[in-house]
Amino acid sequence: MIYTGARREELAQLLVSDVRQDEDSGIWHLSIAPGEGKTVKTASSRRRVPLHQDLLDLGLLGYRDSLPTSGRLFPKLEEHPENGYGHAVGKAWAKYLKEVVGLESQASLSHGFRYTFKTICREVGIETAVSDWITGHAAPNVGASYGTNPLCRMLRELAKYPSIARAAGLHEDP
After folding, report:
1. How far is the C-alpha of 111 from the C-alpha of 141, rounded, in Å?
2. What is the distance between the alpha carbons of residues 115 and 37, in angstroms, rounded to a whole number?
3. Could you tell me if 52 and 3 are in contact, meaning their C-beta atoms sit under 8 angstroms apart?
C-alpha cells in the first residue's frame, strides 16, 4: 500500500493476472479494475498503477510467477462477507499498531498508507495530477479528465518516491 497509494481492498482482491507488463513500454504495473469478483469504489478507481522499483527488487514478479495463473495474488486471504478480502489484513495491522506500537487512532489504520503515500508524493515533488492518477482520485475538473494517464509518465514520477525498503534495511543498494 505504501508504494501504490491503493486502497486496502484494491490490493487484497488482486488476481495474479492483474500484475502485468505493458506491451508497448514494458512497464510492470497493477491493473485495478472491477470484474472476476473484484470491485472498485468509483469510476476513477479503475486504473493502472506502475510498480515501484523496490517491489520488483523485493521479488514481486517471482512471487507472482510462483502462484497458479488463474488465482488470487494473495490466495490465503479469505473473503469476508461484508468487508472483502482485506478485512483480516486490516484487523491484524490495527492490532499490531495498537498493541505493539501503542498507536491510538480513530482513523482507519490501513488507510494511513494512502495518506502517507500522498504526503510523500508532495514531499518529493510528484505532481498532484500524477499522484491522483496513481491513487485513483477523481480529476478536479472536466478538462483534467480528458485524455489518458500515461504509464511512462507515472513511472518517471514514481522514480522520485523514496526507497522505503532500503530505509527499513530490507535490501541493499545495487
Report:
1. 25
2. 26
3. yes
DSSP state, residue 51: P
Residue 42 CB-half CA count within 13 A: 10
- Take residue 14 and report the three cell numbers written for it: 488482486
Nearest Cα residue to 71 out of 17, 11, 8, 32: 17
DSSP state of 109: T
Among 43, 51, 53, residue whose Cα is nearest residue 14: 51
Residue in the block written with cell 508504494: 3
User: For 59, what's the count of Cα atoms within 13 Å in the CB-facing half-sphere?
Assistant: 6
Q: Cα(31)–Cα(46) distance, rounded to whole angstroms?
A: 8
Read off the pLDDT of residues 74-113 as tens digits, 9 standing for 90 and up: 999 999 888 889 888 888 878 887 888 887 766 666 677 8
Order of all β-strands in the sheet with 28-32: 19-21, 28-32, 47-50
Q: For helices 112-124 and 128-135, what crossing angle results, to 10°?
A: 150
Residues of the chain with pLDDT under 50: none
- Tracing cell 494512502 back to the chain, one arrives at 114
Neighbours of 144 (CB within 10 A): 12
Give the distance from CA 2 to its chain's centroid.
7
Under a CB-based contact definition with an 8 Å cutoff, are residues 97 and 103 in contact? yes
